[in-house]
Amino acid sequence: MSTQSAVVPNAKFLKQMDDTIKVNVNLCFQCRKCSAGCPMSYAMDYTPAQLIHAIRLGLKDLVLNSKTMWLCSSCQTCTTRCPQEVDIAKVMDTVKIIAVSEGVKPAISSVHSFNKAALRNIKWFGRMYELGLIGDLKMRTFEFFKDMGLGVKMFLKGKLKIIPSISPGRTLTTWKIFSRVNKKERI
Ligand code: SF4
Ligand code: SF4
User: Fold this and answer.
1) What is the distance in A from the centroid of ligand 2 to the CA of 54?
2) What is the pTM (predicted TM-score) of this model?
3) Cα-to-centroid distance, 116 and ligand 2 (Å)
4) Enclosing H/E stretch for 134
5) C-beta neighbour count of 29 within 10 angstroms
């Protein structure tokens, strides 16, 4: 008897993607130019073209549990190269958002922790405060000694400022942006 479980397509997934971002992944004709140009595809479990294909097939569980979108660096190379003008980078972001909103454990949790720490940092300081980001990330991941040597080197070269650059006007602007996003998310 086979031990393989059947893959169950989720017919609503494609519509969910379409409704959320208005990107028609059905335009993809699998030329794989996106995958060929992606600087992160070597580390992904599914290449960008494969992920797009999986979305078209409605393989929601496979897509939401994939490492691919968590490794995407949003460099936009795929989107720029696609002859069908499929905004693959936007698809990557959307798949992340759907995974988080549906409580799917991120396949690479450190990336999700980094995203949360970076957003909080920008919200509070109006720009990136690297030392604050490192502290926040360490508290989320409990990897207190990871990359410590690199951190010391950066600090000695003056790349990590002890005091954040604070500008009330800038912080107010970012607070307004975050508040608008929060309102939209509640709608
Ligand atoms: S480049 Fe565009 S058309 Fe080609 S495989 Fe990627 S998404 Fe599909
Ligand atoms: S945006 Fe993401 S998926 Fe597209 S090429 Fe860059 S890293 Fe790869």
Assistant:
1) 16
2) 0.81
3) 20
4) helix 130-141
5) 9
